[in-house]
Amino acid sequence: MTRTDLLVLHTLRCVGHAALPRVADTTGLARSEAESELIDLAVAGFVTRTAGEFGGWGLTPAGRAVDEQRIAAELEAAAARDTVAAAYQEFLVLNPELLELCTAWQMRQIGGVAVPNEHTDAAYDARVLGLFVAFDERAAVVCASLASALARFARYQVRLAQALARARAGERDYLADNMESYHVVWFQLHEDLLATLGLPRV
Q: In a 10 Å sphere around its CB, with 0-12 CB exposed, 13-18 middle and 19+ buried, how is residue 155 labelled?
């Protein structure tokens, strides 16, 4: 299995069932290259494709098993477990704050009652967005540490920055309400850390 094969396979493990455009965007590969890798993985029996409007690609049990083996071998070969484990602890410190920020973006407290944020208060949204910007500066440190240990983690910092930039440019759903939102990318990073370290989600 090549490095690109593993990247595509592991992406499906972290994002779940996904159509080709999402696989390509997540990996950073051209769609033609991602599709070629998916076809090869399907021939090997590691992924399968569901047709239809809501179809897409997903891991087979064999594909998940192979990914577990290859990711464990990658971690050992790079002697990166300590670095990744330390970064994961830093991630866990940041994670509750990110969840609170997403809640603050989606909901507001008015008269002691939580109500949906209709994004009609520009000053409120600007404050929350500013907190996301400050958060991202600390998240970038964690991502950089991970990327120094395993190059495939570098993509997360890029995707987080892209989502934040789009939100700052006025595309509000790129914070917490889009499949490529900051929140979703952060969730995928969490899944990747658990998978890489062989830890269960609790």
A: buried
Distance CA(67)–CA(193), nearest Å, equals 14
Amino acid, res. 146: L
Domain spans of the chain, in order of start: 3-75, 79-197
pLDDT digits (tens, 9 = 90+) for 192-202: 999 999 998 77
- Please name the residue that has the structure tokens 């600390």: 138
10 Å CB burial of residue 157 (0-12, 13-18, 19+) is buried
Which 8-state DSSP code applies to residue 172?
Answer: T
Judge whether 84 and 91 are in contact, CB under 8 Å: no
Type of residue found at 88: Y
Distance CA(60)–CA(68), nearest Å, equals 12
Please, what CATH class does the domain formed by 3-75 belong to?
mainly alpha
pLDDT digits (tens, 9 = 90+) for 26-55: 999 999 999 999 999 999 999 999 987 778
Question: How many whole angstroms separate alpha carbon 59 and alpha carbon 13?
Answer: 7
Look at residues 6, 38, 2 and name the one whose alpha carbon lies nearest to residue 23.
Answer: 38
Could you tell me if residue 29 is left (phi over 0), alpha (psi between -120 and 50 degrees) or otherwise beta? beta
> Phi and psi (nearest 5°) for 108?
-135, 155
